[in-house]
Amino acid sequence: GDFVQGDVIGSITEGESIIDIMNEVEYDVVTLGNHEFDFGMSQLFTLKDSLKASVVSANFCDFRTGELIFPPYQILRYGDVDIAFLGFTTTTTATMVAPLTFLDEDGKIMYGFSRSFFYENAQTYIDEVRARGADYVVILSHMGDMDRGEHPSSISLITRTTGVDVVLDGHDHRVIADTIIHNKNGLPVLLT
After folding, report:
1. pLDDT score at 71
2. Rounded CA gap, 81 and 150, in Å?
3. Which among 17, 53, 155, 160 could disulfide-bond with 119, CB atoms 3.0 to 4.6 Å apart, if both were Cys?
């Protein structure tokens, strides 16, 4: 997450030059950070259409329909191994981005990050990718590992679910050294 921001080139091209770079690097899968919404929903969809990588987000919803905006996961085969990538964005995004980004012309909330049943939803998708044959489950998280009260973090996601192997986390703008966090069943999960 936050791939369209962080430098002048991202700001002056509203993320388009960053997408060009990402396409050259050949990313496979990404998730959304709070800064992907800095230039509005229309620009987010334009950038997504230009990006060759898959965008996954298991908690970004269209509140009008109750449906996810992007697929919750992507399963990719590397050699003879199937790896599932699930995406989660910090639920604090709605308060970090200009509120008008998520509202319609009548001021009603159109988009948001579901906090209700967050862990149950996450477990449903984890179980689904395992049932579909994923050998490994990798969470692409833009939630941070710090406690944010009612808002989920990468650590709370690990400790309240089972079936995840690795969590690659961003958001807190600091290095998370390879750390083992134990899941709901006491099994080790790599957080980095």
Report:
1. 97
2. 36
3. 160
